[in-house]
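Dear support,

Our group has been running a series of protein-ligand predictions, and this particular one with magnesium ion is the one our PI (initials K.S.) wants archived with full inputs and outputs. We had some confusion internally about which version of the output was final, so please treat the block below as the authoritative record. The input we submitted was:
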Amino acid sequence: MRGLLPYAVILAAVLVLPFVANDYWAVIGARAAVYWVLVAGLNLVVGYGGQLAIGWVALLTLGSYTAAILVARFDLSPFLAYGAGGVVGALAGVVVGLPALRLRTFYFAMTTLGFATIVTQVALSWQSVTGGGIGLPGPSLEAPFDSPWGFYLLTMGFAAVVTWMTANVASSRWGRSLVAIRDAEVAAEATGISKARLLTIVFLFAGFTAGVAGGLFGTLQSYITPDAFTFDLSVTFFIAILIGGRGSILGPLLGNVLLTLLPEFAAPLVAWSTFLYATLLLAIVLLMPGGIAAVLDFRNRKPLESHRSIVPRPDRVAALVDHGPVRDDIILRNVVLAFGGVRAIDGLDITIKAGAVHGLIGPNGSGKTTTLNVISGYYEPQEGEAFLGTRVLPHGKPQARSAMGIARTFQTPRVIGEASVLQNVMIGATIDGRASFMESALTLPRHRSDEKRLTARAMDALAVVGLESLAPVRADRLQHSELRFVEIARALCGRPAFLLLDEPAAGLSTDEITRLGSLIKAVAAAGTGVLLVEHHADLIFDICDQVTVLNLGKELAAGTPAEIRSHKEVVSAYLGA
Ligand code: ADP
Ligand code: MG
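Confirmed final output from the archive:
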């Protein structure tokens, strides 16, 4: 509830302004609101999803022309025309956005800019429809919205709605997934998040708000020409998000207000505006790297307890995991995978039994992580297959593993530093959410029940690994050993049938390793099969039911811990007697 206070203050300011300011401020206020309708949607793309869409003005242009043309030439009602602008914006949003699935960062940024240039050129040359350089009138509204303050209140209404919707999205599994693909893409895939699907939905939404903003922009300007949609404007939208801080709604909102007001105070400096923005941006990047949002984030400045110990609760695993009797084993049959000349796995057969702990040991570079990557779908074996029971595990589809009940952790923990520990763990259960994007945006009942259920389950998972007290803390404030347990909690939150652990004991203290061992045993006892890649021989021999020893991608030995311990070659080559 405390999070609502800044919004209440802003709302009060919006409502008081008409009583204390002249009409000039109505226009400036409306401009800030119209820009925000676009920036709020774009914020999901840029601030949450981390996609550098700099040319988003293209969608404002398209929405603006669509609405203006429909009103001027077809006599459509302005509000329907705004909606039509939104639809065109949404479709174009997907077209501009989709290259993001293939192109990284700057290359994607350039395609969005290219699109913006094309749209402006078309608006210029297609004179019969757009009026070319002369332009055409924007949609004009009837009373009560034809007065400056009437239009001001209308646009503020639109702004309030998009603020509410994007805030809802941000705090839903959709928002968490966006941040996950931004900061930990590989881990996001492993939890079943499909980047293509997610980004398509978000581009549709952000395109829609940009298109609607375009329609409103036409009314605001009362007349539109191609040169109203400048590159500067596009950069302004983008910078509003950067100085606001990524992963925040309030920050970019304030950034947008700031950048709308700035030209008013710096009118004599208009020729310098690009320079001013650049300086402002530089100052903000240097002085407050997290943007306005980080400055306002008081909660994460409270110091944490310095001597924290992780005390897992193995007794609570069974209640959390709680899947029916597990059925199929994971089976690798004659798997071969070479990187160039290196045969990382060379004809490997392994059966990982449901409900048991299977240890995988071997010297560095013997192919342990590669084996795990084959099972979790990152690598496609050149020969042989991996099965779950009788089903072949599909290649090249790590995002399909989660639905098959396979979860994993990483040799180097991959968590979202800027998200809370709780949010990180909730990522693990993303595919168990039922609400669609729009249901979440509108906080419909299914969204609310999702959040309740997933939050409760993530808290259970945190209790199991012994980190409940850190739930609200930003993950980048945790120690390395704690991050390992956060990853395990994230994996368990999806209630997997199989848990693949890549060196979970690396960097843990002796006590922590012992506790980790009891936890892993409890996970297997609850019916979840565990593949444990480890270096700590004690841990392996203490808790494994079966052990496979790898050397140069081949099985050197396999058997029970007792058999491995007395295996001559293993002892001499690896354990060192
Ligand atoms: P381990 O986890 O047992 O230490 P890995 O499975 O990471 O070993 O690596 C096995 C071998 O495959 C090593 O020789 C490593 O250099 C090579 N390897 C692993 N991944 C790649 C890759 N993506 N490209 C090229 N070589 C790789
Ligand atoms: Mg490894």
